[in-house]
């Protein structure tokens, strides 16, 4: 049994998507970022960085794992799913997982900060992060022109990148003209495990799409308070 400590952010969803797709039993513990629960001693013992998500594995004497990418690799190895055993196949998946962790996540996270949360609109910063986010999307689109999924078969790399790319409108990044990326997004959105994963602990898709302005504004205010308090609203 896995204990998942998480909040409704793209990085949090990476862990819950993986758990759902792999069919591993787990129990959810919601971490209230607004209350600073990620800084409490009990959480820091599991995750020294004070960011969600984190897991503990009851089957392994409550072994703790932090950092969303590391969690996905651990779960894939535990379940024997979505991460090839051969050296080359494993490397391909991990390369695209690192692409998300080192590029997609940080750039979209900064786009969110300056486009949605920061009290002053610093246009050069907004332009810079949205442009870099779009460039990274184009890298994905090029890869997906020749592959159904990023590393061949569906893998944790697809889960990780999709958890972020699906929120592109919240970051103000267009996917217009990226037909391969759109096809890939639709394919993953149709997977029951992926759909279930983005509802753990709650589904904020409507807020991210900003369909309800009042709720979206409330979400932005809460996120802004965490940003200005030096706590990232996007997890690790």
Beta-strand content: 5-15%
CATH class of the largest domain: Mainly Alpha
Radius of gyration: 17 Å
For the residues shown, what is the average pLDDT? 91
**CATH domain fold name of the largest domain:** Glutathione S-transferase Yfyf (Class Pi), Chain A, domain 2
Number of helices: 11
Kindly state the number of beta strands. 4
InterPro entries: Glutathione-S-Trfase_C-like, Glutathione-S-Trfase_C_sf, Glutathione_S-Trfase, Glutathione_S-Trfase_N, GST_C, Thioredoxin-like_sf
Keywords: Transferase
Domain GST N-terminal: 1-83
Region (Disordered): 214-236
Task: Explain how this protein is built.
InterPro entries: Glutathione-S-Trfase_C-like, Glutathione-S-Trfase_C_sf, Glutathione_S-Trfase, Glutathione_S-Trfase_N, GST_C, Thioredoxin-like_sf. Pfam families: GST_C, GST_N. Belongs to the GST superfamily. One of its GO terms (molecular function) is transferase activity. It comes from Kineobactrum sediminis. Helices cover 58% and strands 8% of the residues. It is an alpha+beta fold. The chain folds into two domains: 78 residues, Glutaredoxin, CATH 3.40.30; 111 residues, Up-down Bundle (Glutathione S-transferase Yfyf (Class Pi), Chain A, domain 2), CATH 1.20.1050. The protein has eleven helices and four strands. Strands 2-1-3-4 form a four-stranded mixed β-sheet, covered by helices on one side.
Secondary-structure blueprint of this entry?
Elements lengths: L1 E5 L3 H13 L3 E5 L10 H6 L7 E4 L5 E4 L1 H12 L7 H31 L5 H24 L9 H10 L2 H4 L7 H11 L2 H6 L7 H4 L4 H16 L8
Provide keyphrases for this structure.
Glutaredoxin; 11 helices; 4 strands; 2 domains; alpha+beta; transferase; 236 residues; four-stranded mixed β-sheet; Glutathione S-transferase Yfyf (Class Pi), Chain A, domain 2; Glutathione S-transferase
């Amino acid at each position: 049994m896995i204990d998942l400590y998480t909040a409704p952010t793209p990085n949090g969803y990476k862990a819950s998507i993986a758990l759902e797709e792999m069919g591993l039993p787990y129990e959810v513990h919601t971490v209230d970022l607004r209350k600073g629960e990620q800084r409490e001693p009990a959480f820091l013992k599991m995750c020294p960085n004070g960011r969600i998500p984190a897991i503990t594995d009851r089957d392994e004497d409550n072994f703790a794992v932090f950092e969303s990418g590391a969690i996905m690799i651990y779960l894939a190895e535990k379940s024997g799913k979505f991460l090839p055993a051969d050296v080359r196949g494993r490397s391909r998946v991990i390369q695209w997982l690192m692409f998300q962790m080192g590029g997609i996540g940080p750039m979209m996270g900064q786009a969110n900060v300056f486009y949605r949360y920061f009290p002053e609109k610093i246009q050069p910063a907004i332009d810079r992060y949205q442009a870099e986010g779009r460039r990274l999307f184009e890298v994905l689109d090029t890869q997906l022109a020749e592959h159904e999924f990023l590393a061949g078969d569906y893998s944790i790399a697809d889960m990780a990148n999709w958890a972020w790319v699906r929120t592109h409108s919240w970051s103000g990044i267009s996917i217009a003209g990226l037909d391969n990326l759109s096809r890939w997004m639709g394919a993953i959105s149709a997977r029951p495990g992926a759909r279930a994963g983005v509802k753990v602990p709650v589904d904020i898709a409507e807020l991210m799409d900003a369909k309800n302005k009042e709720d979206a504004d409330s979400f932005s205010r809460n996120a802004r308070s965490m940003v200005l308090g030096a706590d990232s609203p996007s997890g690790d």
